[in-house]
């Protein structure tokens, strides 16, 4: 089968398409024929070596954190008949091995059946950003109806999910994006959209209960001037430096600084699936073939996306 991997850390030029054997599922695993894989910033953070203290120096490594596909085989300990089922999910351990291959093996803890409301392509772009948005609002911020939230970088994968979930939770939603993202931000439910090409976010007078800095460009030092007492700033850039800084901030300030460390587990995946069944939408920005997957990574890293970019294998 074909797979996309790399044998050293670096930019997208280290990626290469290789031929490897189709994996054999263990007793507690299923074999999945991959339909689509969505691109996430975590992919290139791992590939660039930013997280090599965790990922180590064992090569080759495969890339990709989330996928959709169809179950083709089951291990002997799997009790339910899943053959032919459409599933989506996340890599069992993306820090060690990714999912951008024609086939992967997965445990049931990492997958969920695709809701009838989604295509396989859409389902591939759900797990990472959907879980990040859900945990940011529900677990970290413990958002309550009537609170105000600023989503800085609201048109990326996490941003568009966050807008929709914040609406379902009854929040007052302000979003920050470029001119080209204003209309889709409104379409997905943002109450007030600030175009950073036309307005300096630091000049606004509004105070917020929650600031979700998905761009990691606002920074806590700037955000605290826009925060209510006992409010929370969430940073998805979970570097050791940011985590240490947030620890000391939280010792002395009521304006808390929290780092998003997304938990990938079945419980949260089940909860996210319920939201998907009840109308949570997925925005696909662009679709590439597997043969153009290296180009897909290069262009997404350089140019960003409104919604999610996916690589379609069949």
UniProtKB/TrEMBL annotation:
One matching Pfam family: ADH_N
Listed GO MF terms: oxidoreductase activity
Domain (Enoyl reductase (ER)): residue spans on this chain: 10-311
The organism's place on the tree of life at top rank: Bacteria
InterPro entries the record matches: ADH-like_C, ADH-like_N, ER, GroES-like_sf, NAD(P)-bd_dom_sf, YIM1/Zinc_Alcohol_DH_Fams
CDD domains per the UniProt record, alphabetical: MDR1
Protein name: Zinc-binding dehydrogenase
Organism expressing this protein natively: Silvanigrella paludirubra
Lineage, uppermost ranks: Bacteria, Pseudomonadati, Bdellovibrionota, Oligoflexia, Silvanigrellales
